[in-house]
Amino acid sequence: MLYGIVDLIRKLLNEDHQYVLPRIFQTDRLEGEFGIYRQLCGGSYHVSVEEVKNSLRLQRLKLFSKLDAMGVPISQCSIIQSECCQLDLNEDDISYLDTSVSSIDAISEEENAALYYISGYVQHKFLPSISISGIFVTNASEFTELVSRGRLCHPTEDLFQYVRYAYSLFILLPNAEMQFQCVRYISKLFIYFYTALPFDLQALLINTVVFTILNCFFKGLTKLNESSDKVSLNIEDRKVKKFCK
Question: What's the pTM value of the predicted model, to 2 decimals?
Answer without folding.
Answer: 0.56
